[in-house]
Amino acid sequence: MGSIISPLQTRVSWDLMLTERALKLLSLLRVTQNTNLKRLGSEFDGGYFLPSDFINCKGVISGGIGNNNDFELELGTLGKKILQFDPSIETPPHSHPNLVFDKSALGGSGISLIETTHQYEARFGEALIDGILKLDIEGSEWDILAEYSDRKCQDKLCRAFFIVVVELHFLTSIYKDDFWRKVDFALEALLRFYDIVSIYGNNCREIVQIGGVPVVDVVEVTLVRKSSNPEESALLSNIQSPRNIQERSPVYLSWPTFYRLEAE
Questions:
Q1: pLDDT tens for residues 25-65?
Q2: What angle do CA 140, 146, 148 make, to 5 degrees?
Q3: Burial (CB count <10 Å: 0-12, 13-18, 19+), residue 61
Q4: How far apart are CA 125 and CA 137, in angstroms?
Q5: What is the full DSSP assignment across the chain?
Q6: Residue 42 three-state SS
Q7: Domain residue spans in the chain?
Q8: Are 130 and 58 in contact (CB under 8 A)?
Q9: What is the DSSP-derived secondary structure letter of residue 132?
Q10: Per-residue pLDDT tens for 156-183?
């Protein structure tokens, strides 16, 4: 039996303008700094990679909890103070003295990222410096990440967050001009200040060819603030590919390889 091609795949597959767009996305979403990683949280969904020196971070802003805050709980047991946000639940699954919950949305018409740093200081009595930002907010991350383009707050945001862990949603919708502009703007802003140390595809969603380039709809990315002399390598790739959904195969990515094949 032949494979089924959806209308979406047919519509976006062979447009040369979309090829350039997809290739730029892949050029942005690639590992640019080598570091040792540790996975915290659940074995499947609810787990995230952090650089091993995360232990030096004291505070955390976490957007998006749902029915799993194992990641936040593990950080809390390690002594990190965490401010959690999620408008879709009444209370997180796990509680801990170091975990505080706010039933508010981030991005869009909700709370801005810079406001979360003010709330953190008000709740815990200390400024958030060299902390961790985790975002799994179902598409609102693009509004939040775009705040790094604001000259009035970008310095404070960079001081507040040494590590950024973000789930990027709806990447297969970059064929829509307005959405692509939002994605491009947000990533360009963020990557001025951070290097990617881990990226892998979430197997909860589909892979679509856009302009002949395979694009995963949801990817999970870990970034660290740029240093003055980072260890970089164009040959880095993901050696680990976790499964968010246990019953499905993992998504194996080699973003730089995709880009080199098209460019040659």
A1: 999 999 999 899 999 998 878 899 999 999 999 999 999 99
A2: 130
A3: buried
A4: 26
A5: -PPPPPHHHHHHSS-HHHHHHHHHHHHHSS--S---EEEEE-SSTTEEEEEGGGGG--EEEEE--TT--HHHHHHHHTT-EEEEE-TT-SS-SS--TTEEEE---BSTTSB-HHHHHHHHHHHHSS---SEEEEE--TTTHHHHHGGGG-TTTHHHHHHHEEEEEEEE--GGGTTSHHHHHHHHHHHHHHHTTEEEEEEEE-TTS-EEEETTEEEES-EEEEEEEPPSS----TT---S----SSTTSPPBP--HHHHHHHHH-
A6: coil
A7: 7-263
A8: yes
A9: E
A10: 999 999 999 999 999 999 999 999 999 9
- Residue 261 CB-density burial (10 A; 0-12 exposed, 13-18 middle, 19+ buried): exposed
Residue type, 261: L
Give the SS3 label for residue 159. Answer: helix
The second-level CATH assignment, the architecture, of 7-263 is 3-Layer(aba) Sandwich (3.40)
Identity at 120, one-letter amino acid code: Y
Residues in CB range of 260: below 8 A, 6 or more apart: none
What is the Cα gyration radius of the chain? 18
Q: pTM of this prediction?
A: 0.84
